[in-house]
Amino acid sequence: MPSKKLDFKTGQYVVYPTQGVGKLVKIEEQTVAGQKVKMLVIDFERNHMTLRVPVERAEISGLRPVTSIKKMNEAIASAKGKAGAKRMIWARRAAQYEENINSGDPMKLAEVVRDLQRRTAEDPMPFSARQLYFRALERMAQEFAVLHKIDLETASERIEDILGVPKEIDLNAVDAEDDDEDTEED
């Protein structure tokens, strides 16, 4: 299958899988090991980080343009669904969630948000699950914010409103089994 050539432009928002949404600030030429290499310079303002990606490696690295509003809406709709089965031990599920978050794929982010969100204010949430949930929600909200030209906090709130996440959640409430996360859950 031939790979399509990604065409990036200065000022465009892009998604780097492990970092989230950044802005392509310039395309520059650098000399690396005696070779001239075209680099995409991406600013991740929220992380206070600048990343340089060789143009030839952009597709391989997973760099992509921000998704469309239609695909974002599909991802959010999938996050409204029923949580997936929780039959494997937490450590394995957490590793899978981490992999999904670092994929940068809106559908995989939605899967994490769907599986880890609280359905009621009384639902306990272990610290590690809460951390994964908020990382996945933030990554989704970054793209949502760019698409709708709003700030990140508003984007997170809108996504949670769409999903029906209860507002009166005590984020400090933890599961009684929080210390025993390596046990198998039903």
How would you characterize the overall build of this protein?
By secondary structure, the chain is an alpha+beta fold. It has two domains: 13-65, Thrombin, subunit H (Beta Barrel), CATH 2.40.10; 69-179, Methane Monooxygenase Hydroxylase, Chain G, domain 1. Helices cover 40% and strands 19% of the residues. It has helices at residues 58-61, 69-79, 90-103, 106-116, 127-148, 152-163, and strands spanning 13-16, 20-32, 35-44, 49-54, 64-65. It has a five-stranded antiparallel β-sheet. A hairpin with a 3-residue loop joins strand 1 and strand 2 (20-32). Helix 2 runs parallel beside helix 4 and helix 4 crosses helix 5 (127-148). The radius of gyration is 19 Å and the shape is elongated. The chain starts with 12 loop residues before the first strand and ends in a 23-residue tail after the last helix. The model is unreliable at 175-186 (pLDDT under 50).
Quick synopsis:
The protein is of the alpha+beta class.
Please outline the helices and strands.
Elements: E1 13-16, E2 20-32, E3 35-44, E4 49-54, H1 58-61, E5 64-65, H2 69-79, H3 90-103, H4 106-116, H5 127-148, H6 152-163
Antiparallel strand pairs: 1-2, 1-5, 2-3, 3-4
Helix pairs in contact: 2-4, 3-4, 3-5, 4-5, 5-6
Task: Name some characteristics of this structure.
five-stranded antiparallel beta sheet, 40% helix, 19% strand, alpha+beta, 2 domains, 6 helices, 5 strands, Methane Monooxygenase Hydroxylase, Chain G, domain 1, 186 residues, Thrombin, subunit H, disordered C terminus
